[in-house]
Each structure stands twice: as C-alpha cells, then as structure tokens.
C-alpha cells in the first residue's frame, strides 16, 4: 500500500516533513520507490510517461545520493558537484535495477553511486587542492612567463617574473609549486635527474587485501539491514570466534536455532552479492 501523501496516478511526490522520524521517512521512500518501479516496468522506454516515472524515481532517491556524498565531505570539493556526480550513479542504478530479484533498491544502488563518486575523484580532481588565491596568481605567473620568454628568447628567472608582477619572489615560487598539482607525473618517469628510479620502482608491494575493499564495504552496508539478533550472531561467530554451541549458551537458544539463523543470514548476503554492480 503506497505511503500517505503519495499519488501514484499522477506521480506526485512531496518533500518529507522534517518532523517525521527518519525511519518513517525511509519506509515511505522505499514504498514509493517500489510503486514507481512497478509502473516503470510496464512503460515503453523513450515515452513521455516513462520519462516522468523515471524522473520521480530519481527525485525520491536523492537522499540516498546525499548520504553517500556526505562520506566525501573531507575532500574539500563543492558538495553540489559531488551530489551531481552521485546522481549519475543513481540514474545508472535505476536503469539497471530489476525489482524481481528480491533486493531493496538502496542496497543495489549504493555501490553504484559510491563507485561513480570515487571515479570522479580519481579522474577529475587535482591531486592537491590549490587555494583560490594561488590559483588566480598562478594564471598571472603563467602569462608573465610566456611574455618574458617571448621578449628575452629564454625562460625568465623567478626574480624577473616577480618584478614583472610586482610581487615577492616567494609568492612566485609558491605559484610554481602549486601549478605542479595540475599535472600528473607518470609513475615510470625518472625523478630529479637521470639514473634515479621512477615512482613506480619505489612503490611498496600490492596488498592482496585491496581486492576485497569494495566487497567488505558492501557487506558492511548489508549487515546493518539484518535483524538485530542475526547481526549479533554473525559478530559472535566471526568476530568473537565463538562456536555455535557457545553462541546458543550466550543467547539462551538452541544450537539448531543458531544454525538456522546463520543459514538465513548467509542466504540474504549471497543473494545481494550476486547483483552486478
């Protein structure tokens, strides 16, 4: 049954009341998402109605994108840009989601949204965040360098650039250093002179556990959706290394019941892990 204040006939959604408890708002969003995916399935892609339902799905699930974007708040990038990139991941997830697989949409969409944001930071963000003042001054230093090079037929000295711009030499040096953050150096490039090893030769070994980072992040996201008792049993079994007999004594239930709950938890996790993200 659709949540209150949701009209599925004309696909109208309303901003949740801030006074509404977070858990209630989340349940309403999940219910609305379920209804909208039901409608989307019967519509022809490319039609106006399909576009309206798809847009409503995006709007309803934007809080998921903001939640994911908040994890990257320390990166000093405008949050609006991060949310915009995460929304691209949300749209991709909506286009690929199959409600018949029995998995909640947030579970399916979160790895895609986070992956899109991480890709943005990897491919588009400068390796060092340059303060705005240095960025503006760097543009002036670059222009002065080009003009002086043309005038003298050689690369200008730091003092000549500083004299041209009427600024201290220390600021020119700071701008030149900041300008290096705009260019990535090849890992195989030699460092500071011939014969010295490149960055690639000085890197440490590849940690084999890195391959499981994304998987562990997904599992951590799924665990919090299990019932409290099943979460506790998994923690006792695999973090406290208790046997099923010890867990049954700890919780006051039979060992057979513990075994059934473990099997049910594994089935849920395996089902979610089979999703292509």
TrEMBL record:
DNA-binding among keywords: yes
Classification via PROSITE patterns: SIGMA70_1
InterPro entries in UniProt: RNA_pol_sigma-70_dom, RNA_pol_sigma-B/F/G, RNA_pol_sigma70, RNA_pol_sigma70_r2, RNA_pol_sigma70_r3, RNA_pol_sigma70_r4, RNA_pol_sigma_r2, RNA_pol_sigma_r3/r4-like
GO molecular function, one term: sigma factor activity
BP-aspect Gene Ontology terms: DNA-templated transcription initiation
Family annotation (NCBIfam families): SigBFG, sigma70-ECF
Name of the featured protein: RNA polymerase sigma-B factor
Native organism: Streptomyces fulvorobeus
Protein's gene: sigF
